[in-house]
Design brief:
It is built from three helices and seven strands. The strands form two sheets. The chain has a four-stranded mixed β-sheet with strand order 4-7-6-5, with helices on one face. A three-stranded mixed β-sheet has the order 1-3-2. The protein is of the alpha/beta class. Helices cover 23% and strands 29% of the residues.
C-alpha cells in the first residue's frame, strides 16, 4: 500500500460547535463541499473532515461509546519557538483550552498541546528536525 493519508475524519459530538471552533478559533474556512451533516477543511495535501460521532461509528460498524485518551494527536508545526508562543497565546485568548503550555521537549523541539471541543489533541510545535515545506506550511492558524 502506498504511504499516503488523503482524509482525516474526526467524529464529533456536536457538529456545529466543532465547525464554529475550527472556523473561529483556528480561522479555517470550510470547503464548499461541506453540508449540514459533514464539514471539510483543505489542509496541506490532505483534508480534515468533521462528522457526527454516532454517524462515523455507524459507518464503520463499531460502537460509538468511549471516552478518554484516544491514542493520537494532530500537529501544527511552525518555524520557531516564538511562533509557537504567539499562536498558543492567540488561541488561549480565543478561549481554546491549553493542556500544556509551550516548553522545550526531550526530542529537541518546543511544543504545546491544545484541545478541540471533543478533546482531540492538537500539538502546536516547532521541530528543528522537521523542515517546513514551502507550499504554505509556514502559515499559522489565524
Amino acid at each position: 500500500m502506498e504511504q499516503r493519508i488523503t482524509l482525516i475524519t474526526l467524529g464529533v459530538k456536536n457538529l456545529q460547535r466543532s465547525r464554529d471552533f475550527y472556523t473561529s478559533s483556528f480561522g479555517w474556512t470550510p470547503l464548499e463541499t461541506s453540508t449540514e451533516s459533514i464539514v471539510f477543511f483543505q489542509l496541506n495535501g490532505i483534508q480534515l473532515a468533521l462528522f457526527p460521532q454516532e454517524s462515523l461509528a455507524d459507518d464503520a460498524g463499531v460502537p460509538s461509546e468511549g471516552t478518554g485518551f484516544r491514542g493520537f494527536s494532530l500537529a501544527h508545526n511552525l518555524g520557531s519557538e516564538k511562533e509557537v508562543d504567539e499562536l498558543v497565546a492567540k488561541l488561549e485568548d480565543k478561549g481554546v483550552r491549553v493542556l500544556k503550555q509551550p516548553d522545550k521537549v526531550f526530542w529537541g523541539g518546543y511544543s504545546s498541546y491544545v484541545a478541540d471541543p471533543d478533546d482531540n489533541l492538537w500539538e502546536i510545535a516547532y521541530n528543528p528536525l522537521l523542515p517546513l515545506v514551502p507550499n504554505g506550511n509556514t502559515e499559522s492558524i489565524h
